[in-house]
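Predict the 3D structure for this chain.
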Amino acid sequence: MYLTAQELEARMPDATKLLSDEPEMESSVHYKQLALLVSCLEWLWRNRNDFFIGANLTVYFSRQQLRNRDFRGPDFFLVKNTQKRERPSWVVWEEEGKYPDIIIELLSTSTANIDRNLKKDLYQNRFRTPEYFWFDPENLEFAGFRLVGEQYQAIVPTAQGWLWSEVLDLYLGVAAGKLRYFTQEGVLVPTPEETAERLAEQLRILGVEPDSLA
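Done. Predicted structure below.
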């Protein structure tokens, strides 16, 4: 049974101040991968104000979950059509009943089994999250699923091994050992730093030293 936003609000207390309760990332490799996913998408969508990105942030979705302290915080998640602002956690009943539109988990030795099974079932059956991906930054295992009817179906990779995200309108694929975004035309979505480096190189080609413009 799925509750409407109004039904959720009537049943749940005010929880706008609930803090996230997630453990630290498994390693610096996982942290850097997460930061890469966040920074690239925020830079690409820098002129938009209709989304929220959660990074290692708890998603609160029921009173029973709070009572049992059964917290399930995706490593990366995106909610579209919402206000872009800081939040200490994502509280479903305080957000018009919205669940993540896409989730990416970064696998590790200690979490891989949970991510492939328990969390996959939760995101499929309770969250009804349209797309779910996982990626292992160490052995580069990569998979993606799209909700078709009631079940997740594996997304078919391209010849390059990329997976198309309808939610992002981008490809996800592994490049230089990192999970990155690519446009529909196959162009790598850069980080802000990569964008600055490319601009500096273009200026040098034109005979202009970037430092002289500071």
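The chain has a mean pLDDT of 85.
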